[in-house]
Design brief:
Largest sheet: 3 strands, antiparallel
Strand content: over 45%
Number of domains: 1
Number of helices: 0
Low-confidence stretches: none
Oligomer: single chain
Length: 62
């Protein structure tokens, strides 16, 4: 299961500006989907590595 984290900080005298920092799939986990059939072993159907995504956003309320 992918690990993600989000951090938000409000700044300014009136706290109207926020900075968000987010990291998705921080451990770069492999995603796997298995095929399941009645009374058989699970077999791998799809396997992929989505990679790590990093984002930074700044918002200001007028």
């Amino acid at each position: 299961m992918p690990v993600w984290t989000t951090t938000r900080k409000s700044i300014g005298e009136d706290q109207r500006t926020t900075i968000d920092f987010r990291i998705n799939n921080i451990l770069n986990d492999v995603m796997e989907i298995n095929y399941q059939a009645f009374e058989t072993e699970d077999k791998p159907f799809t396997r992929f590595t989505p990679g790590t995504a990093i984002s930074l956003s700044v918002n200001h309320k007028f």
